[in-house]
Amino acid sequence: MNDSHIPGLSMIVMNQHQILYQDSLGYAGYNYDSETDRVIGFSTQNDNIYMIGSITKTITCISVMQLVERGLINLDDDINKYLPLPIVNPYYSNETITMRHLLTHTSSIGTTHPGLSVLPNDQYSTINFTNFIYGALLEGGPFYSEFSWLKVHVGKEYHYSNLGTSLAGLIVEIVSNMDFKAFTTKYLFEPLNMSSDTFWLIDSLNTRQKQLLTNHHLFNASIDDFRFFFPFLKFSEFFIDSEPLSNISWINVTERFGLLMHPAGQLRTSVTSLAKHLLMFINNGTYNGIQILKSETVNEIKKIQFHTSTSLKVGLIYTYFDFKITKMRTVLGHNGGFIGVNSWMLMNPDTNIGVIVLSNGDVVNFNQYQSNKVTTALITITNYLFDVFETTA
Asked: 304, 321, 360, 367: least buried by Cβ within 10 Å?
């Protein structure tokens, strides 16, 4: 962690029956002490609440599949069956986009400017979600960009798309006639007993819960880059005086933030609560006697739907990763990375061991070397936990 400049992390290991190990290391954030004129770290704890980045997409996937089970969504129907106005790729307007395409990143949808869709605190929730999606996907819309659509045929190429997953979240809203945040709370977080520390909105937290939020920190990056690409957020630069990271320059995101593309990366939760979500998946859709999905639905999510040009094997949102560190291991799950966020949630289908590691430090792509160091460190930690607990299982 020190070599990779990761402020803090929380980790948990489970099999299909129980939690096997849990711990938290490092700092949940740093506070300025005016009396000593120093920046002091405050330690992580197991109930810290992290933004989990793109692991959120697994929540969106489960929500879609719950509606598939109810017969309200068909994975292979034209998505325009569910939408008030048609959405098509303007380069290939005669081609049909389906929910399966959205959940496998093969829809030919690109992205909007990420910085313009990141807003302070809960401001994202004041903007009509439908208007945002259409504004990003219809030419001339306020969020439309040259990257909104790719010049590729639908279903032929894998291109990771936060906007595509967000569209899937909008369809959940329309089909269920419920706000996406309310749907996930009612049909996933409450049944799994996650709702006490799993949140979409900062303003919904009480004082104690806000104290458990981890801060977002960035090491060895240009503050000007972040101010340019995320113009609505505030950043500050500081030095850490506490050992072992003395005299190292960091950037702090000085206020909480939310995403207009919230079904793709917004969720905040603890490693303890997220473990319930993964345990449900490991146990084929059931947790603590509560069925969230049928086992055949989980099998459909796990089924390889698409092989990418980089040899990734893609299920429905969930992706297979080949780790070759101590030995070859293929695991299934998702990771997440954003401003001061790097997280992993994985299971080994052969052993039913699950590992989650959440951290509060990354610089996304503004310093690729540093970002790679953080990712490599977390993969190494995750792989080590698999090694230990698969050996003892």
From this structure: 304
